Amino acid sequence: MVPQRKFEARPARSVTGALVVPGDKSISHRSLMLSGIAEGASEVTGFLASEDCLATLSAMRALGVHIEQLSPTHVVIRGVGLRGLRDAGFALDMGNAGTAMRLFTGLLSAQSFNSRLIGDASLMQRPMERVAKPLREMGADVRTRAGTPPVDIGGGRSLQGIVYAMPVASAQVKSAVLLAALYADGVTTVIAPGINRDHSERMLASCGVRLDIDGLCTTLHPPKALVNQKLNVPGDFSSAAFFIVAGLLGASSEGLLIQNVGLNPTRTGLLDILRSMGGDIEVLNRRESGAEPVADLRVRASALRGVQVPVELVPLAIDELPVLLIAAACAVGETVLTGAEELRVKESDRIAAMSAGLKSLGVAHQVLPDGMRIEGRGEGPAFSGGEIDSFGDHRIAMSFAVASLRAAKPISIRDVANVATSFPGFVGLARSVGLDVYESAE
Ligand code: S3P
């Protein structure tokens, strides 16, 4: 058995200096898939060499795409064209990566061969019917085991374009349908119930695919081919989020500078929420990198106030809500989060996981079916210290590491190996700006 890893996060006085977070996970997954089915070689820099994206990389290789990693973050992908993927001959292991499993379900449902998708213990329990259902409507043969993986995909189906109104504002579902739609007869329209991340649309357009976007309706016109791309992946806003909150809780007087952060407006709900809580976050040096907006962020220590989180911002901050709850615990007054039932089906049940950790650390809160009410402590230590469990969820582990800035005593965080699924080098980077966090065997 692989020995478990833990974090020991001791109360540090402040954070300071500058850092660059690793590349965006959503964009890195998509860069491999789209480049793999494009014509000719694509070059990706700033690639996120995390376990999740490496699962996608291995799967694309197994499907016959030649991929060279010139360095961990510099990847050259020799596209095989829309019809060039080949049967891997074995089950493709997506590890912990929900994005990989859902997007591959779309891509593989349009191929001439059969596929099977599996994952780790967490992924094997996550809902897959949300992608299987619209793909079946297109004529695909997608089977789940009572809604969860393994996902079995029968090849050789000809797909039809559909109009699909998604019940949840999920970029993974939309992207799975759009990937299958590349191969369909006729156009496909996906209608979302709310704003969700649009990296797929931006990258598909860069690859020459015609998309008509009208508010929450996205229509894809099947292309003859995809054009290769040269892409520099921006830093992941979801990884930057831990340092944004760290800066608000404990930046030194000159603040904390986070450089090269992707600021796609479908991802930055956390900025709006934290600013409404009184957070001092300055956006500097706005620029474009490929099809995505990028900037540097300067964060200063701020006295935060509790808020009612606007429900329309929830999908735009979905992966950042665990660390938002850490900020809320340090604010003056109550914060109320609702409309976030999707947190229940992430890498862990993130409402339950945050509640268990907050309880162990003495933070008063009430669990709601779709969120949480949390009583902020204001100035001074908000967390007692003690041992908590991350439930194998990377974002829970990193959120509680940030909490150590306002802890009375060290916080010991169990089961943290999965931090490597999204944020390789988190501990080193956190230490470089002053967080006092160590990783060791449990
Ligand atoms: C992602 C979409 C979101 C997000 C996930 C990455 C993507 O999931 O939580 O971490 O890359 O498309 P949903 O589509 O389930 O909202």
Describe the structure in your own words.
With 442 residues, the protein is of the alpha+beta class. The chain has two domains: 5-23 and 234-441, Enolpyruvate transferase domain (UDP-n-acetylglucosamine1-carboxyvinyl-transferase, Chain, Alpha-beta prism); 25-232, UDP-n-acetylglucosamine1-carboxyvinyl-transferase, Chain (Alpha-beta prism). The chain contains twelve helices and 23 strands. It has helices at 25-36, 51-62, 98-108, 129-137, 171-181, 199-206, 237-250, 269-276, 321-329, 350-360, 394-403, 426-432, and strands at 5-10, 15-20, 39-45, 66-71, 74-80, 92-93, 115-118, 141-145, 148-154, 163-165, 188-191, 210-214, 217-221, 230-232, 251-262, 280-289, 292-300, 332-337, 365-368, 371-377, 386-389, 411-414, 436-441. The strands form six sheets. The protein has a four-stranded mixed β-sheet. The longest helix has 14 residues, at 237-250. The mean pLDDT is 97. Shikimate-3-phosphate binds next to helix 5.
